[in-house]
Each structure stands twice: as structure tokens, then as C-alpha cells.
Write a structure and sequence with these properties.
This protein is of the alpha+beta class. It has 13 helices and 20 strands.
Length: 458
């Protein structure tokens, strides 16, 4: 069979017949697919690769529609400011489909520990793993992950990728056997199952018409690539809660870290407009400065520390201090709006949502993309079982099982992240004292930290 393969982000080698140079004419003769995936970003491309490698779906034709132009991957000396913190569950998924070998051949950083603290008290949480098999997370540039995914997609005969696929219309009539996707200046494609992986402004979700709970945080996430003043082990991810939002440093290598700073729109604008040196000075002060604290909070946390020390469960063990920033990589500063969102339903007959199309969270816990990768693993298993049993892939019974499993996991995680955001969004002394005491107790209880880490890895 002759097919044309276009990559959503990286180059795939085209196999083109001389008599089929016209793209639209070629596809008009064969426009039905078992599965159509809308959106070729991290979630959509990984989903296509995962389903394409599922032996139980080997006879299914999969189409991936990506609106962006194809790009060839070129490794830059400088790190990208778009990175993701991938948990062990995501690592397993990418490793199982052969993607991690490509990431490993390029670059990534392993997070061995995590330290969280705030500016209003000395309370802190310290996660540390000395076991190579129990890494906390992996920091990978998004373009490196995409490179690995598209390298594997190029090997699959049952997955077709169309680049610059601008969609003009969906027909998701539940009374019809197939869904229809119409491209601008292109053919109409049909499928048994349409999967929306096209982000929080998802066209697929909007067409489904499902109710979504969402709000704008009126906060911006400022990102940048930083050079440390001195080379070090740099295997710790640091996060400090400031009065106007959390600031996080994610390791990239022994000399560089990636910044994610949640702050007000005006402060974000100021941070983007100041000189690199002023930015570095503000950043170092925010990470290490000791603002004036409330006396009651100070004394309350000290007294509780004494109690914990008496019980021989110190709340300050393994405390470390973040590295000092030396430089900000030129032109690496950028900002994006932050918000919360969750769909009351992820599915309807023949249609399902994954990733940001279904749920959106604050980046303070680094779990947003991992929730999406969890969606992929779950749906892949369910569709494999459906195909094995001879069921229609678009059956609402199977899709409801996906929705049920993922909402049972996603909703508690999203509520916990939202709770942290709101809990640390106030400087009211009684609240600061209570949360500080809670953090001290939590940090002293290793089994509880282990349980939380395991839940965040799913």
C-alpha cells in the first residue's frame, strides 16, 4: 500500500507515488479510519504511537491530524524553555513504546529529590530518593520528547500523520455510525472513534458541547532557562511559595536549570522587561531571601519542631539550600496564562477527550502533562480489550469505562493541586501557622510522603 506520511513536528520520510502528487486527490479515495486523533502535540502524538504499537489494534487504521507545520528536530546548544517534569508512570509509558531510548540519546535530567518551602515560615517538605530505581521525576524538553515520539511513529504502517491539517467542521452526530472531520480545502474523513487531544481550547470539546468548570487564575507562568553560578550535582527540584505565587527550579544538567514562576500579570510583565542581571538579582532574592515573618508563626513552628525532635521525627532533616543563579539564558524568558478547567464528561458515543482538552491544572505540582499521559495509558488498555472482544471502538460502554477510571484518578489530584494553590495564596497568620504545622508533620512522616509520591507517579 502506498501512503504519504507527514509529521506533526518532525520529518518523516514520504513514500509518494508519481501518479498521486496531489495530496487531497490521494486521500479522497481512502478517507475512512478506525481512529482519528486531533492534535499532534505531546499527548496526541504519544497517543497515536501508543495505539499504533498496541498488538490488539494492529489491524486498525489511525490518522493523526496536526494543525502546525512540520519541523525538523535540530538539537540546540541552548536548552528550550518549554520543559516537562515526567513522573515514573510517564517514563514507563514512553519506555514501553520505544520513545525513551531516543530521549536518552539526546538529553534529559533525573530528579532525585524535591524540596518545597515557603517565605512565611521555616516549614518545608523534602522528598529524596537515593535508589536509582526510585527517581522522583525526569525533566525533558518538550521538543526532545516529540522528537522521540515521531521517530517511533515513522516506523508504524498503521498510523498516518497529516501536517497543516486545518479543520473546518466536525459532524459528531451520535445517531450516525461514523464521525466526520472536514479539512479546509481538503477531504472529509470518517472514523469510528474521534479522540480530541487539541488542548484546552479544543475544537473537539467545543463541538461535543460538554459543560466545563473553569476559571482564570489571573496569574502568569514565567519561564526561563538559567545558568547556575557554580557547577553542582543539581539533581534537586526546588519550589518556594511566595506571597504572589510559587517559584520552581527544575534541573537540566550540572550547570543549568529551568524556571517556572507563577505570579501576577503585572509582575510577569516587569520580569520580562527588566535586564537579565536585574532578573537574576530578583530571582536569587526570591529564592533565598528571608522576609519579615509573623512572631506567632515563628514561635509556633519552633515549639512544634521541639515536639517532633523529642519524638525523634525531625521535620527539618536533609534541609538544603537552592543553588545561586549566575545568568539567565538570552531570549529564554517568556510567559503564559494560568487557569483551571475540568470537563464534567470526557466521552460521548464515538468521541473521547484526553489531556488538556479534558482537564487543566496549575503547574505548581508539575502534574498537568502527566495526567494526560495517564489518560493515554488507560485508553490504550481499554481500546485494546474492546478490539480483542470484537466490540466497536466507539462504543459508549468502553469509553465510559475510560472516563470513570480517569476521573477517579484525575479529580482527587486536581482538587489537591487546587487546594495547595488556595492554601498558599494567603498570608493570614492563623492560616500560615496551621499550614506550616501541617507541613512540618507531613515532612516528619516518611510513610505518608511515600504514599503521596506513589500516587503522583500513576
Amino acid at each position: 500500500m502506498i501512503r504519504i506520511a507527514f509529521s506533526g513536528s518532525f520529518k518523516l520520510v514520504p513514500i509518494v507515488s508519481k501518479c498521486h502528487k496531489n495530496f487531497n486527490r490521494f486521500y479522497s479515495a481512502n478517507t475512512h479510519f478506525d481512529i482519528i486523533i486531533v492534535g499532534g502535540g505531546l499527548i496526541g502524538s504519544t497517543l497515536a504511537c501508543t495505539l499504533g504499537k498496541n498488538s490488539r489494534l494492529a489491524d486498525k487504521k489511525i490518522l493523526l491530524l496536526e494543525a502546525g507545520k512540520k519541523k525538523e528536530f535540530k538539537l540546540s546548544q541552548h536548552y528550550s524553555n518549554a520543559v516537562s517534569s515526567l513522573n515514573p508512570g510517564t517514563y514507563k509509558l514512553l519506555n514501553d513504546i520505544g520513545v525513551w531510548s531516543h530521549i536518552n540519546s539526546v538529553r534529559f535530567a533525573t530528579v532525585k529529590g524535591l524540596q518545597i518551602w515557603e517565605s512565611n515560615s521555616e516549614a518545608m517538605i523534602n522528598f529524596r530518593s537515593d535508589n536509582a530505581q526510585e527517581d522522583v521525576a525526569y525533566i525533558v524538553e518538550n521538543n526532545v520528547t516529540l522528537y522521540g515520539v515521531y521517530q517511533e511513529l515513522a516506523k508504524l504502517d498503521n498510523v498516518t500523520v497529516i501536517n497543516e491539517a486545518l479543520i473546518s467542521e466536525f459532524n459528531l452526530n451520535s445517531q450516525k455510525e461514523n464521525n466526520e472531520v472536514t479539512l479546509k480545502n481538503g477531504p472529509i474523513y470518517t472514523c469510528n472513534l474521534l479522540l480530541g487531544c487539541d488542548g484546552w481550547k479544543s475544537q473537539v470539546r467545543q463541538k461535543m458541547g460538554f459543560h466545563c468548570v473553569n476559571w482564570d487564575y489571573e496569574r502568569m507562568g514565567v519561564v526561563a532557562t538559567l545558568e547556575l553560578e557554580e557547577e553542582c550535582d543539581n539533581s534537586i527540584a526546588w519550589q518556594r511559595f511566595l506571597p504572589y505565587g510559587p517559584i520552581a527550579l527544575l534541573p537540566l544538567n550540572s550547570k543549568h536549570s529551568s524556571l517556572v514562576w507563577s505570579t501576577s500579570p503585572q509582575h510577569a510583565k516587569d520580569l520580562l522587561s527588566m535586564t537579565d542581571q536585574d532578573f537574576v538579582d530578583i530571582l536569587n532574592g526570591s529564592l533565598s531571601g528571608s522576609p519579615k515573618r509573623n512572631y506567632i508563626v515563628e514561635e509556633g513552628t519552633k515549639a512544634f519542631d521541639q515536639v517532633l525532635n523529642f519524638l525523634q521525627v525531625s521535620s527539618r532533616k536533609n534541609r538544603q539550600f537552592p543553588p545561586k543563579i549566575g545568568k539567565c539564558q538570552e531570549n529564554s524568558r517568556a510567559a503564559f496564562p494560568l487557569g483551571f478547567g475540568h470537563c464534567t464528561n470526557y466521552v460521548m458515543k464515538g468521541v473521547a477527550l484526553l489531556g488538556d482538552a479534558a482537564h487543566r491544572v496549575h503547574p505548581l505540582a508539575g502534574q498537568g502533562v502527566n495526567l494526560g499521559f495517564g489518560d493515554i495509558a488507560c485508553l490504550n488498555s481499554i481500546l485494546g480489550e474492546a478490539s480483542y472482544s470484537g466490540s466497536n471502538l466507539g462504543s459508549i460502554l468502553h469509553l465510559k469505562e475510560y472516563e470513570s477510571q480517569r476521573q477517579r484518578h484525575n479529580i482527587p489530584m486536581m482538587l489537591a493541586i487546587e487546594g495547595l494553590h488556595r492554601l498558599y495564596g494567603t498570608e493570614f497568620p492563623p492560616v500560615v501557622l496551621l499550614r506550616s504545622l501541617g507541613v512540618q508533620a507531613f515532612n516528619a512522616l516518611e510513610p505518608l510522603k511515600g504514599f503521596l509520591r506513589s500516587q503522583a507517579s500513576l
